[in-house]
Design goal:
The chain has a domain of 174 residues: Amidase signature (AS) enzymes. It has an eleven-stranded mixed sheet, sandwiched between helices. It is an alpha/beta fold. It has eleven helices and eleven strands. The longest helix is centred in the middle third of the chain and has 25 residues. One of its GO terms (molecular function) is catalytic activity.
């Protein structure tokens, strides 16, 4: 697949949803099309839901945004059923990565990342079940935040039941990420660091150009970044794949059984997921408990853990069907869906001008601290300085 001659935007359905007293300068916001907006169908990026009835009420997060004075201007495109990492969608159109149109926009919250990167909105809302906010954020060169699991109310999100999924924001600057968090969660209060954070680097494997774009700027600032290990990281990746497969099959498996209109990639993944057994799920849950405890123990000694956001630059659109190019993309993102820890990604560039980024993982509930650390990064490390 190649980039379209006519760029497909991130926003699929244009809306105008706001409170009666909405300010003229209210933030413009777009939400992923797996979140209910009253009076409009929730299609989850799938032709299977082309005839869906309009939602009767706003999703809880949409209601919060409106109450906070935001202006909802659209619903964004997404990887079908939020079950993919490339953002390629033959049914609704693949939103074009604004800065790198020959590369994938990332998934599954592709349109939300594209809308922010293109300046269509001040911030956008996505959902992150296995990296689906953080990965497209880096693909499109913006900031993406996955809050602590359960922090943002998921009522009105699809699928309704998930032990992994978190609703989170995209923006072009940290002040706007924090503004989005305050709108989504009134209990969120931005923090300011009183000292440099105590950080550790997770020992990982990544392409040389990605590593140089992350480590060299930090080393140039003289920051102490000791290496640490998480022995269950790869097991957690595989366990998270098992859990997402089982939960997505429970939510959408009937679409396969009933012969609904699905993209071939989704039909194939759902069919495989429907074969996941109870024993496999139990083993995955055992890994979840052990890995969560391992991360918690490590964060008892550090304020945050750093990883590459992606182990390599995002693949070309022409490589989007190559599992060897796509599957590793969430290697360092997905495990923290399993554990539920908050994680934020900040974009930077390789020496060739291609997208790269760092992930910052923090303690459960320490969402404001993680945002403060990310803001500190943007203020002190030149490569990570961002502007709205």
């Amino acid at each position: 697949m190649t980039a379209s001659a006519t760029p497909v935007p991130g926003i699929d359905l244009r809306l105008s949803v706001e409170a009666p007293d909405c300010a003229v300068d209210a933030p413009r916001v777009a939400v992923k099309d797996c979140l209910d907006v009253a009076g409009h169908p929730t299609r989850c990026g799938s032709a299977a839901f082309a005839g869906a009835a309009p939602a009767q009420a706003h999703a809880a997060v949409v209601e919060r945004l409106v109450q906070a004075g935001c202006r909802i201007i659209g619903k964004t495109r997404m990887h079908e059923l939020a079950y993919g990492m490339t953002g390629v969608n033959a049914a609704t159109g693949t939103p074009v990565n604004p800065r790198w149109p020959d590369r994938i926009p990332g998934g599954s919250s592709s349109g939300s990342a594209v809308a922010v990167a293109a300046g269509e909105v001040d911030f956008a809302i996505g959902t992150d079940t296995g990296g689906s906010v953080r990965q497209p954020a880096i693909c499109c060169g913006v900031i993406g935040f996955k809050p602590t699991f359960g922090r943002i109310d998921r009522r009105g999100a699809h699928p309704a039941q998930s032990s992994l999924d978190c609703i989170g924001p995209f923006a072009r600057s940290m002040p706007m990420i924090e503004r989005a968090m305050q709108a989504m969660d009134p209990s969120f209060v931005p923090e300011t660091l009183s000292r440099a954070p105590k950080l550790a680097r997770l020992r990982t494997r990544f392409d040389r150009d990605v590593g140089d774009s992350l480590i060299l700027p930090m080393m140039a600032q003289g920051y102490e970044l000791p290496y640490v290990d998480l022995s269950l990281l790869d097991d957690a990746f595989r366990a998270a794949m098992t859990v997402i497969g089982r939960e997505t099959a429970l939510a959408f498996g009937l679409l396969v059984t009933n012969g609904a209109a699905l993209g071939e990639d989704i039909r194939s993944r759902l069919s495989a997921a429907m074969a996941i057994t109870e024993d496999e799920l139990h083993r995955a849950e055992a890994v979840r408990a052990a890995f969560t405890a391992e991360v918690d123990a490590l964060l008892g000694s550090y304020d945050a853990i750093l990883t590459p956001a992606l182990p390599s630059v995002p693949p070309l659109l022409s490589e989007a069907t190559d599992p060897a190019k796509v599957l590793p993309l969430t290697r360092y993102l997905r495990p923290f869906n399993l554990s539920g820890h908050p994680a934020i990604v900040l974009p930077t560039l390789t020496s060739d001008g291609l997208p790269s980024g760092v992930q910052i993982v923090g303690r459960h509930g320490a969402d404001a601290q993680i945002c403060a650390i990310a803001r500190w990064f943007c203020d002190t490390v030149p490569n990570f300085q961002t502007k709205d």
